[in-house]
Amino acid sequence: MNKESGAKKKEAIRQEKRKIKKEIRKKIEESKLQKAAATNGFLKKRLEAEKTAKNNDKPNSTTPQRPVNRPSNTTAPRYKQGKPVKQTYQQITQKPQQQKESEAEQMPLNKYIAHAGICGRREAADLVKEGKVKVNGSIVYEPGYKVGAADKVVFKGKQLYAQKNPVYILLNKPKDYITTAKDPEGRKTVLDLLKGATDERIYPVGRLDRNTTGVLVLTNDGELAQKLTHPSFEIKKIYEVRLDKPVAKKDLEAILAGVTLEDGFINADAVSYADAKDKSVIGIEIHSGRNRIVRRIFEHLGYDVKNLDRVMFANLTKKNVDRGKWRFLTEKEVRLLKYMNKSFVRNKKEE
Length: 351
Known about the structure:
One of its GO terms (biological process) is enzyme-directed rRNA pseudouridine synthesis. This protein is of the alpha+beta class.
């Protein structure tokens, strides 16, 4: 009996739940219908209002109308505006011509490296095959790979710059020649001594006074010229100075310790007698490129410079080059200059 009564109770509960769900669904349906009716009524009213507004906007037949100004010629243009004009022959052929010039400016990678002064073409080919050269961020293994000025060629983390026709000349400058490409006063310049040496436009690296003689480099390599003259690189220079009287030892010590001139403090890297028998001839090593610096040092100490000769510049000497003569630099010399060999750059750690 207890089981039957329990089953009846459960059934009654189920029926009650079903009844409640039906009532909920019925209320939901009624709510939806009410909302739909309200929406339809709103839309109906809106449509009627718009229709009434349109009727009010229509002009009456008795109201005079303004004449409508229409263009006399309503014919559409034959061609749309902005249509490109036919290209001329020059315009058509311009791009291929530029492309030809671009291809002509390119060169094999090993040749590019050689023109950058790193090594010869054969050695450059080996460097490429060994995967030591990158072009535009990627390693290239083919020596004949074509590159140009727009490409970024890197060797040992340093970007290379190739000159089409790089020229490097060492001149043993004589007196009475101006260190410039052209003198407005018409005086003799160092380029007068190099007529016929090259068709390239070259210029002096740094400056030697009119009456100063010795080693002078001329080139068309702007990057190298900037390195050799920029104060931050402190390129070594050695001069032989002939003075009007013997130089006292205390003055040599003063030059080595440093003196203060009108444009600041300066000291020599090394200084000594060039001739033990003639103490009026001094050898001085200095890194500064300030104007007339050697002359001004000795003038500051009461000496008159009779002759000033630069015997070494960046490890280049005038050996086997007579006064007023010149020679081309060797590939090895150019490489040493480009990579700033320690032998001619002052070592600041020694100070």
